[in-house]
Amino acid sequence: MDNKITVKGKLGELNWSLLPGITVEVEENLLKVKRADDSKSQRAFHGLSRALIQNMITGVTEGFQKILHIYGTGYSAEVVGPWLKLTLGFSHDILLQIPEGLEVTAEAVPRSKGMRSDFQSIITIKGIDKQLVGEFAAEVRGCRPPENYKGKGIRYFDEYVIIKAGKAGTK
Fold this sequence. Notes:
By secondary structure, this protein is α+β, with helices and mostly antiparallel strands. It is built from two helices and eleven strands. InterPro entries: Ribosomal_uL6-like, Ribosomal_uL6-like_a/b-dom_sf, Ribosomal_uL6_a/b-dom, Ribosomal_uL6_bac-type, Ribosomal_uL6_CS.
């Protein structure tokens, strides 16, 4: 028996090597993950393997997506070939290479008359590998994390930033 597991679906194919002492069996259209013994490390590997296989199945059937919002005047993002170009108020633009297997889109939010939009751009990262999607989203966010005083920076779609009060000043 080889220790590789391959999951194929409508969105693609993912491969993963099983951890030592872990076996996978198919019984009545169900995938069963089993461990060799009840040691602490085997129990940990068992749970990890089950979660990773579940993420592989979800990835090739539905896919994963992370949405990032860019807040701040003059901040923007655009996809240029295999690169994500970020303009974040530094003296230079930041270029991040988009990993193989990810689909990244960056769109500017149009400003309409009378409506105020807090964020300037939306970055959407899609892929079948949950780890790769999450790592790239964290790398993008790490270029300019949201700051506490004005909230400028890159944040996840569902992230809430607590804004601190500024200096009270002398009276």
